[in-house]
Amino acid sequence: MGPTLGRRMLFATICAVAVATLYVAQPVLARIGGDLGLPEADLGRIVTAGQLGYLIGLALLVPLGDMLDRRKLIAGHLLLAGAGMALAAVADRLWLLLAGLALAGLFAVVVQTTVACAADLADPAERGRTLGAVTSGVIIGILGARVLAGGLAALWGWRSVYVAFAVLLAGLTCLVLTLLPADPRDVRPAYGEVLASLGRLFRERLFLSRGLIAFFLFATFGTLWSGLALPLAAEPWHLSTAQTGLFGIAGLAGALGASRAGRWADAGRARLVTGGALVLLAASWSATGQASWSLWPVVVGVVVLDFAVQAVHVSNQHLLTTVYPHRTSSVIGGYMVFYSLGSAVGASATTAVFAAAGWAASSVLGAAFALCALIVWAVDRHTATETCPAPTDRCPQRAGAARP
After folding, report:
1. 342 φ, ψ to 5°?
2. 3-state class of 239 per DSSP?
3. Which residues contact 31 (CB under 8 A, 6 or more apart)?
């Protein structure tokens, strides 16, 4: 029997809270800098510390889920991420703040362990539905973090943000130990074997194609959400940080709507969902590209973009966990390396392009990333058709023959 509604909600909440720890610093950077007396040049290090820890955790910690009891692993990672948040809350020097955020980022990879655990507990016929519900928590955490952090900081200062998340993570630790089933392992592979298995994934077609799609997918996601505030703060809008944060609500609507993608994946339509959503993703930039002239098209574009991103992301994870059922943690961790790199590329590229040529150029960049993902999907679909003349989303018996 698959996870109950209560467990799905717990998994989604873990993902939302854990991933939010990587983003809550963004709306309060100026307050942190003013309180600690930091120059603007040092503020970027605050965000980078958590992201760097996260990237290390993807490679070194997530594969542990294929070796150890996932209930204890999730609980331990939540507790240690909470310790990082608590350290950041009391930091009075930059190095101490960075240490706390790096620790929290390192163990924020509990998100991927949670997704893998949910996929393993789900019945095969409902795996997509479960992944859709759980992965929605990730998008909610990313988009909601900015709104929540801005509100808490306005009421009680930036340290209250980190105190609140430390408490939330500690509470989730208790819930995990109480509500999740034990996950004993009869056979426990060596850590070196698990890492070697992860490395071999990067030579397999299905994994590489879905990873490249994820790279471009989250590059376009990062292009929007790291760059949208720039035209909204400029003429003619001059929106405040709080007003800009409200666009995250539109993103949440799109992300929540995409939970339907999990049901489509369960029905064997993950391949079609991916292609259709990538077309929508590219088209959404024709609306968000109008941010310098009109706001309503931007709202529509944000909803469509976040729907498309979530739909592709769920479809990717459904296919990968179906084809690699005995190493779900490793495959999810490796896949998320592409996600992390794509987000970083999109975030850094959009600010540089905006500074040089404005939001219209940033929109072209975002659309180009989306088209690159569509090209990867189309090429891989053609390759799979030659490998498997009558493919379906469940036809592959080997990763190399998997149908996208």
Report:
1. -65, -40
2. coil
3. 153, 157, 158
Q: pLDDT at residue 15 above 70?
A: yes
Which residue from 277, 229, 270 is spatially nearest to 131, judged by alpha carbons? 270
Residue of 22, 97, 5 lying closest to 58 (CA atoms): 22
Q: Which residues contact 57 (CB under 8 A, 6 or more apart)?
A: 105, 106, 107, 108, 109
Q: Tell me the two tokens of residue 203.
A: 């030579």
Confirm if 161 and 37 have CB atoms less than 8 A apart. Answer: no
Which two structure tokens, joined as six digits, stand for 338?
């592409």
Q: What burial class does residue 382 get, using C-beta atoms within 10 Å of its C-beta: 0-12 exposed, 13-18 middle, 19+ buried?
A: exposed
Lowest mean pLDDT among 52-66, 124-138, 198-212: 124-138
Phi, psi of 315 (to 5 degrees): -65, -40
What is the per-residue pLDDT across 25-60, written as a single tens digit (0 to 9) for each?
A: 877 777 888 888 887 667 768 877 888 899 899 888
CA separation for the pair 374, 23 (Å, rounded): 28
Please answer whether residues 215 and 338 qualify as being in contact, where contact means their C-beta atoms are separated by less than 8 angstroms: yes
3-class secondary structure, 93:
coil
d(CA 140, CA 12): 9
Q: Please state, in angstroms and rounded to a whole number, the distance separating the CA atoms of residues 386 and 230.
A: 46
Angstrom distance (rounded) from CA 255 to CA 250: 9
**Structure tokens that stand for 216 in this block:** 């471009």
- CB 206, CB 404: distance < 8 Å: yes
Task: Let me know: does 124 contact 144? Beta carbons within 8 Å.
Answer: no
Q: Is 129 exposed, middle or buried (CB count within 10 Å of its CB: 0-12, 13-18, 19+)?
A: buried
Contacts of 50 (CB under 8 A, 6+ apart): 21, 22, 25, 101, 102, 104, 105, 108
Instruction: Please name the residue ranges forming H helices in 122-157.
Output: 127-156
Contact between 262 and 132 under an 8 Å Cβ cutoff? The reply is: yes
